[in-house]
Amino acid sequence: MQRIPHHIAIIMDGNGRWAKAKGLPRIAGHQRGMDVVKTMTIAASDLGVKVLTLYAFSTENWKRPDNEVQFLMKLPGRFFDTFVPELIENNVRVEVMGYTDQLPVGTQKAVQAAVEQTAKNTGMVLNFALNYGARAEIITGVQQIAEQVLAGQIKPDQITEQTMATHLMTASLGEYGDPELLIRTSGEERVSNFLLWQLAYSEFVFLTKHWPEMDADELKRAILIYQNRHRRFGGLAENKSDKE
Ligand code: IPE
Ligand code: IPE
Ligand code: MG
């Protein structure tokens, strides 16, 4: 229970393959995946995680067939309709990052309602990456900074890592913006345009299980793998504060 990562980011992958292996349509995998989000949220909150960021829909996922995209866009509404009371019970606050203005209005409303209904909660932040892409995120941040330079508010040589970090979609997470641990399920070992800046020194754990098969024990197993890693941040000894 010591050294629980403050911020865990998860690429929830393998819904479609899980369904296919069972002879079910891909959307059955997404449906089951939604239930697993509930389980994992409570598990992470119980472990004392401060921020759980879940990659739910990427800026590239629009390429999928219409019926799948439509189903995915309905999931947030179904998720929050049934789960907000439990989120409140567990003091979990919902946040969302991504280009939400491009989502169907119904999806936007469902997400916004959940953000508002849980706004007063002070426990774990459940941060959904929805229509999120890291390259687009960086471009948007750079555009904002360029505007400030144009307006004479800052000089180019005053742009620091901190400047950049405060113009990314994780800015509201403050000191927890960068995940210590990235988990990807389903055996794929790639980042797929997720948190490119923030993952600079994250530990990556790739699990072979598909997302619909995940549970609290698998989360604990991933955290244990993380705890046995030696984080050096370019130095030689393990960062002491990280051990506490
Ligand atoms: C992850 O599962 C969910 C989303 C990307 C929305 P996939 O739908 O990518 O499942 P696979 O990778 O095709 O099995
Ligand atoms: C990444 O998974 C996006 C989400 C989990 C939301 P994908 O299934 O879209 O990634 P690729 O296509 O395998 O790289
Ligand atoms: Mg996938």
TrEMBL record:
Substrate binds at residues 14-18, 26, 30, 58-60, 62, 64, 184, 190-192. The keyword Transmembrane does not apply. Mg(2+) binds at D13, E203. CDD domains: Cis_IPPS (cd00475). GO terms for cellular component: cytosol. Pfam families: Prenyltransf. Homodimer. It comes from Weissella diestrammenae. This is Isoprenyl transferase. The keyword Metal-binding applies. Belongs to the UPP synthase family. Keywords: Magnesium, Metal-binding, Transferase. The active site is at D13, N61 (proton acceptor). Its EC number is 2.5.1.-. One of its GO terms (molecular function) is magnesium ion binding. Catalyzes the condensation of isopentenyl diphosphate (IPP) with allylic pyrophosphates generating different type of terpenoids. InterPro entries: UPP_synth-like, UPP_synth-like_CS, UPP_synth-like_sf. One of its GO terms (biological process) is polyprenol biosynthetic process. Binds 2 magnesium ions per subunit.
